[in-house]
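Q: what does this look like with N-acetyl-L-norvaline bound?
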Amino acid sequence: MKKYTSVDDIENLDQILQLAKKIKENPFDYKELGKNKTLGLLFFNPSLRTRLSTQKAVQNLGMECIVMNLNNEGWTLEFEDGAIMNGSASEHIKEAAKVISQYCDLIGIRSFPSLKDKDKDEAEFIISSFVKHSTVPVISLEGSTEHPLQALADALTIEEYKTTKRPKVVLSWAPHPKALPQSVPNSFIKMMKKMDVDFVITHPEGYELNPEITKGVSIEYNQDEAFKNADFIYGKNWSNYIHYGEITNNDPTWTIGSRQMNLTNNAKFMHCLPVRRNVVVTDEILDSDSSIVIPQANNRTYSAQTIITSLLNNLE
Ligand code: AN0
Ligand code: CP
């Protein structure tokens, strides 16, 4: 593995999941691999889990970590080639990425989409600029179209909690007061396509995601119908992809609660977090035994550690 900015960068998921399980069993067995290595974490947006779990993964590997919030602590960066830099940006990505690469063996970047300029977001403008100008491997800590570390933690969680060989997994849209990225659902869909699961997406009509990503996946507009016999429910809001970045539906009947969960095969409830209680999912579900969002978040450490291990092994 040379970079991890998309679920597409996983060549052999079985191998990666085996490594993740081994790492989770013995997280401190790989301390030699990370010795004298540094991971740089660059955040253009807030984070709780990604920041802390990746730092934890780094500690488990005997590495060092340096973290920077680029939005309010760094120089404003210019990303356009050939820009005349007489505006607010003080430093070009060309210098910044090369300089950071001298301090770090790996670079992780969180950069949410604008949700205004679809073409720029789909080009993963910021992360791909880092990939282009860095001289070390880049990890996405959630980009404008994907959240691949989350998806690997999700895959590991499904592996751990499944009780049948081929579980039914349902990704359900749910309401949210803010316009959110499509990154988490995109990466989750790509991951489910790699796994042996019966996968269904449910969302209101008009909330279709990028058809290149959902190609071949069944879409059920009736949420209750989709939930029938499900083993896993993955709740998540995303903003409209067609009317790009808009909120065109806030129907509270889509809030995931016992009405829908009672239709499932005693399904486990998953969410990447942070989650809005009683908007995305009810207290009743989140506080019940069917919710596995806390162990799911725990798997973020092993997801990050697995990817860092794979990238470091490739540097040797
Ligand atoms: C972000 C999102 O939906 O992509 C981050 C989730 C990991 N969520 C919010 O901004 C609430
Ligand atoms: N799930 C996730 O990535 O959480 P944070 O935004 O808190 O990092």
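The first helix runs from residue 13 to 25. The chain has 14 helices and eleven strands.
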